[in-house]
Amino acid sequence: MIAAAWPNASFVIALARSSVRSGPAGCNEPPSWNPDPGLAKPAPLAPGPPVLSWDGVSVEFDGKRAVDDVTLAVNEGEWVALIGANGSGKSTLTGLTVGLGKPSAGVVRFRGQPIRPGKVFDHAAQVALLLQAADDMLFETTVLKELEFGFRFRARPKDPVLDVPEAIEFFGFGGREEDSPWELSQGGRQRLALAALLVGAPGVLVLDEPTTGQDADHMRAFLRLLGRVRARTGITIVTVTHDIRGLASRAARVVLLGDGQVRADGPASQVFAMTGDLIRWGVLAPPLARLQSELLGPAAVDVLLDVDELASAALAHRPDAAHAGSPGAGALQP
Questions:
Q1: How confident is the model at residue 284 (pLDDT cuts 50, 70, 90)?
Q2: Which CATH architecture has domain 2-271?
Q3: Distance between CA 144 and CA 162 in Å, rounded?
Q4: Tens-digit pLDDT profile for residues 204-231
Q5: What does 57-110 look like in DSSP terms, one character per residue?
Q6: 232 — phi, psi (to 5°)?
Q7: Where exactly are the structural domains of the chain?
Q8: Containing H/E element for 54?
Q9: Measured between alpha carbons, how far is 166 from 160 in angstroms, rounded to an integer?
Q10: CA–CA distances in Å: residue 174 to residues 32, 70, 119
Q11: What is the reported pTM?
């Protein structure tokens, strides 16, 4: 978690929010909330320089390297999951993107411009960092005031990800504009914090362990929400997560960190096929990936992560289906 990697991070980011918006995401839908999983498709990648980059970055705490010479870039429109055991450097890396802490070596950049350590007020408008505790990011007395809170301190952006009326409709707050945030469910407050963030104009959304502590239903609702946000906005997402089965498997690209270094970086279907390497660095691959790895051994270099896709591929490889057309996709190709 960010708060563990950077002491007092929650307090600092909450203060920054009074000038530029940031806040977490959520689920637990009221009856008016109707997530549509059919919209949860990745946005097309945009050309241009990386939206975030770490160039030869190292970070030391008490003489020990938490991040060790990391070079990494996130392109516009990507959904990248940072995975790894506790202490692998995930939250330390993402904290640097809003100026929390100072690298002992290297440079962190947003769209080519260096991120200045300590300048959280400046960078929180560009990199929207969602902490795990949504309640700590809410300040106002009504839903509407919460959405408009940041505009008391800065001009309304010319190109918001969503404007306030769009956010009210998109997140299902119609008719509840004058309700207190504390009259909402926990998931409703999480959604409100995310909506308040998106009425700004962040270039990238960074989520720090957003599904920790959620039950399966809430986690699935959050995934549908995040998919709808991406389908609607095309925003770049970087996720720090231990939720390998749910959140990390939805990302198109996965970066495995171990002892402060990048140990693997590639499409989720390939990184999750590296079951032995994942175990070595304290991560258990999703069940579908482990199943394919156990059945196919070294041939499982590109696994399927969707149950329906795996079932279709398995049916396509039945002996009586061999004449029916081209072989199935992914690791089931011998």
A1: very high
A2: 3-Layer(aba) Sandwich (3.40)
A3: 14
A4: 999 888 777 777 787 788 888 888 888 8
A5: EEEEETTEEEEEEEEEEE-TT-EEEEE-STTSSHHHHHHHTTT-S--SEEEEEE
A6: -80, -40
A7: 2-271
A8: strand 52-61
A9: 10
A10: 8, 44, 36
A11: 0.77
